[in-house]
Design a protein that fits this description.
By secondary structure, this protein is α+β, with helices and mostly antiparallel strands. 18% of the residues lie in helices and 33% in strands. The strands form two sheets. Strands 1, 2, 3, 4, 5, 9, 10, 11, 12 and 13 form a ten-stranded antiparallel β-sheet that branches. Strands 6-7-8 form a three-stranded antiparallel β-sheet, with no helix packed on it.
Length: 310
């Protein structure tokens, strides 16, 4: 039985998990829905109309969007989630892998566009799976089994060869998340880890990591957006188009590495649509305005078995 289904505009669960993308160095993208993003009006941070309200500064507009997203999250019905269930996540993703060329220059680039369905064990003990097919919707689906961890052992079956390995269950639904902005911001800063990046950058990225392919209880999801609104330097990018062709506005933070991470919301309802990353300056063979990766979240739900979508 489907316990809860998100609206088609998407539910929290954003940045594309990198485990299935090529590790060929820098990634850029300019295919499919990303092509619409490559305009000066989109790539320049600007003031925008949000929800029919007059334009505001980019910082205050970002806060307004995030507050609206928090309100939208709080109004969602809470779901009683059992440990033996699955988080179902459906998304469209596009990125380009850039291989290392001879010398110091860039190599070949390959566009990867996927429609992805993931069934992730709520408590980490059940056998889940990930199904991917070309973003056009055609072609042969690739299925990856996600064995659960039971009694400290994970059993793998690869091509008929069975193996085991010690493990700890990896839960895909967290019941311990804060429900207030202060507590959530502290959680995001802790989750950002001990890096050389500015801690606010790590906290912003941790917010995307937390809601990626995840069902978050309404109060905690609202706290994520309220916490992001408190991160200095967060601004608004004007009208953008996500990988599903939906129009939205993006709340963004520029990274010290030269890219900008964007969380995309419906401009009217403030529902979360997905995320993307764009290059903001010319470097390492990349040009300002190139989209590094993009994901449109189509659905997040709690279901009873792997393979169930409704």
């Amino acid at each position: 039985m489907l316990a809860e289904t998100a609206r088609e505009t998407g539910r929290a669960g954003f940045r594309l998990p990198r485990l299935t993308m090529p590790t060929m160095g820098w990634r850029i993208a300019a295919a499919g829905g990303l092509a619409a993003a490559l305009t000066a009006g989109v790539l320049t941070t600007q003031v925008v109309n949000v929800g029919g309200n007059p334009p505001a500064s980019t910082a205050s507009a970002a806060v307004r969007i995030l507050q609206g997203a928090a309100s939208e999250a709080r109004n969602r019905p809470a779901v009683a989630v059992r440990g033996d269930q699955f988080v179902y996540a459906e998304s469209i993703t596009t990125a380009i892998g850039m291989s290392q060329g001879q010398g110091s220059g860039p190599g070949d680039m390959t566009v990867i566009s996927q429609r992805r369905q993931a069934w992730l064990s709520v408590d980490g003990t059940q056998d889940g799976m990930i199904r991917e097919r070309p973003g056009s919707g055609g072609g042969t689906a690739k299925v990856m089994e996600m064995p659960g961890c039971r009694d400290g052992i994970r059993v793998w079956d690869k091509g008929g060869k069975v193996g085991t390995q010690p493990c700890e269950p990896e839960a895909h639904y967290r019941r311990d998340l804060p429900t207030d902005a202060d507590g959530m911001l502290a959680e995001l800063r802790r989750a950002g880890g001990d890096t050389r990046n500015p801690r606010d950058q790590d906290a912003f990225n941790a917010a995307g990591d937390l809601i990626r392919e995840a069902y978050i209880a309404p109060a905690s999801l609202a706290a994520v957006f309220d916490a992001v609104a408190r991160i200095p330097g967060v601004t608004v990018v004007g009208e953008v188009t996500d990988e599903a062709g939906r129009t939205g506005v993006a709340v963004a933070l520029t990274q010290v590495q030269g890219s900008r991470t964007e969380l995309i919301f419906d401009a009217r309802t403030h529902a979360f649509l997905g995320e993307r990353s764009t290059q903001v300056r010319n470097q390492d063979g990349l040009k300002a305005g190139q989209v590094l990766d993009s994901t449109a979240v189509l659905k997040i739900a709690i279901v009873d078995r792997a393979g169930q979508t409704s």
